[in-house]
Amino acid sequence: MVDIKSMTLEELTAWFKEQGEPAFRAKQVFHWLYRGVNSFEEMSDLSKALRQKLSETCFITHPVVARKQQSALDGTIKYLWELGDGNCIETVFMRYKHGNTVCISSQVGCRMGCAFCASTIAGKVRNLTPAEMVDQVLFTQLDSGEPISNIVLMGIGEPLDNFDTVMQFLRLVNHPEGLNIGMRHISLSTCGLVEKIDKLAQYGLQLTLSVSLHAPDDETRSKIMPVNRSVGVKTLMDTCRRYFQTTGRRISYEYAMIDGVNDADWQADLLADLLKGMPGHVNLIPLNEVEESPLKPSRRVAAFQKRLEQRGVTVTVRRKLGGDIDASCGQLRRKAMKEHSPQ
Ligand code: SF4
């Protein structure tokens, strides 16, 4: 069966041609898919015979809302979607001044093992498909009734560990006949897969690359991010420098502030040294506590910020959204998994 929503309009047109159907039919179907229809039967301007043929050869993905939590504080909505195979993923809808933003997942689970993250506790189950990534944007928009103008790939999973799918997803959401979200409105977060960062640079996309740095020294970073054990901070920063030189796009460095782990003055100084001569900015993230983790939020966020700024680094502190609804990555899925486990 063909996963029809994972195809671009151009691929769909070529596929329709192979089936002996005119090109304009592909466009009609593409438009229906982005209206969120769940079956070919609903595509009322297609002939009955074509609808029948499509039902026999293709399928349309449509996640179901397994849980939905809305913050009473700021309107943030967290969705737990159940996919066609019963797996669950999370999507977070957030309201910012610069527009509504959706944070989406790229995998079911994650194999990267970051110590502060709930998404990785049970490992990676599988990659998402392009359609399953598009669906998170599409159905969040339809369910919330609000237009989405920005996407961040910062939910469950390491996007560059599902590289080809993520590239196809970007083509799909960027398409003017589909969701038409510009590359400059998309951020992609990575824990630092250097070969994939180099590969991404070759595409020359206008998106924002966010590198989850979280520590400026190898000893600390290797403790909280196993990915650092094979590729250290220096190699990562050299790769970031190359990325900037190739694409001209500034990188955003994510830094979750963890009490007594990465929030010392010397670490702020080292971080400032790492970023010398390279345009970019640091985004300090107040840590969300994960029940299974001993890591606690830092109380030194303001002091750390000040020290970086004194050394010429551009710094922002992420506004905490959805603090009352398990809004950080992987927490809601983890909660649902625990409730359904037999122990
Ligand atoms: S922070 Fe990102 S890369 Fe690290 S374990 Fe969590 S989902 Fe995976």
Please describe the topology of this protein.
Elements: E1 2-3, H1 9-18, H2 23-33, H3 48-57, E2 58-59, E3 64-70, E4 77-82, E5 88-96, E6 99-103, E7 107-109, E8 124-127, H4 130-144, E9 150-153, H5 163-174, E10 186-190, H6 194-203, E11 208-212, H7 218-224, H8 233-247, E12 251-257, H9 265-274, E13 280-286, H10 301-310, E14 314-317, H11 331-340
Parallel strand pairs: 1-2, 6-9, 9-10, 10-11, 11-12, 12-13, 13-14
Antiparallel strand pairs: 3-4, 4-5, 5-6, 7-8
Iron/sulfur cluster (SF4) is lined by residues 110, 112-114, 117, 119-120, 156-158, 191, 212, 329.
Q: How would you state the average pLDDT, rounded? A: 94
- Uncertain ranges: none
The overall strand count is 14
Q: So how many helices? A: 11
How much is the radius of gyration in Å? Answer: 21 Å
In percent, how much strand structure appears in the residues?
A: 15-25%
Which class of secondary structure composition applies to the elements? alpha/beta
Order of adjacent strands in the largest pleated sheet: 3-4-5-6-9-10-11-12-13-14
Query: What's the order of the H and E elements?
Result: EHHHEEEEEEEHEHEHEHHEHEHEH
Terminal-residue CA separation: 37 Å
Estimate the helix proportion, in percent: 25-40%
Which sheet architecture does the biggest sheet show? 10 strands, mixed
Bound molecules: iron/sulfur cluster
User: What is the global morphology?
Assistant: globular
